[in-house]
Amino acid sequence: MLPNLKEEKKLWKKGFKRVTCLDEAGRGPLAGPVTAAAVILNSKFKYQKSPKESLRLPTGQAKLQLKTKNLLNEIKDSKKLSPKKREEFYEILTKNQNVEWGIGKVSEKVIDKINILEATKLAMIKAIEKLKIKNKKLKIDYLIIDGNFKINSKIPQKPIVKADEKVFSCSAASIIAKITRDRIMARYDKKYPRYGFLKHKGYPTKYHLKMLRKYGPCKIHRKSFSPVRACKLR
């Protein structure tokens, strides 16, 4: 089953024109921040990519020539996309004039203080705030949250478990949140090269755990997570 616009369309028909969908990236890793994206699709959102549209990849490599495709048949939960596809869709979504988006980030230090669930909620609130800052006249009418929890907001909201697999705008949010976090971890990889953050993005892979045991945690490790607590601090 591919994500669709059923939830958004139901709310649009009820008069909720600014439906904001939220998803996070980075609840499971042992290091780095948790990020969240807030995405609003204009009801006039065009699902088709422009024929032969050229976009420059973030790496500065040769331009990617995009053929006309139906995004509804391709965009899905970021975890089910290849890194190359995630990058491609990130560029398309963030440069589409009918897509409004904001990013929230909460550091590993705050995660250790308030726990990962509360940090995830905080990242979502920050994403909404960034969305409003970017669009000063923006009035958000409704929230759809990927998960089984609500956030501290007076805006009407609906949590949906696995919304990133069902709701198109949540899938879009998952891609934007994931790419944003991956790029953060790529920068950390240069600062802390011994841990291999570029490859595993902080998730508890065998290699990451091996390096964690060998070198101990670095500054961006989440000290409240048990695999990190078990290692001697360096």
Secondary structure elements and pairings:
Layout: H1 6-13, E1 19-25, E2 34-41, E3 53-55, E4 64-66, H2 83-94, E5 99-106, H3 108-114, H4 116-134, E6 142-146, E7 157-160, H5 163-166, H6 168-191, H7 197-200, H8 206-215, H9 226-229
Parallel strand pairs: 1-6, 6-7
Antiparallel strand pairs: 1-2, 2-5, 3-4
Helix pairs in contact: 2-6, 3-4
Q: Can you count the beta strands?
A: 7
Helix content: 25-40%
CATH topology: Nucleotidyltransferase, domain 5
Strand content: 15-25%
The low-confidence runs, each spanning 5 or more residues with pLDDT under 50, are 47-69
Tell me about the biggest sheet? 5 strands, mixed
State the name of the first-level CATH class. Alpha Beta
Distance between the first and last residues' Cα = 46 Å
CATH superfamily: Ribonuclease H-like superfamily/Ribonuclease H
Query: From the coordinates shown, what is the CATH architecture?
Result: 2-Layer Sandwich
Mean pLDDT: 86
The radius of gyration over CA amounts to 18 Å
Q: What count of helical segments does DSSP give?
A: 9
Question: What is the N-to-C succession of helices and strands?
Answer: HEEEEHEHHEEHHHHH
Sum up the overall morphology in one term. Answer: globular
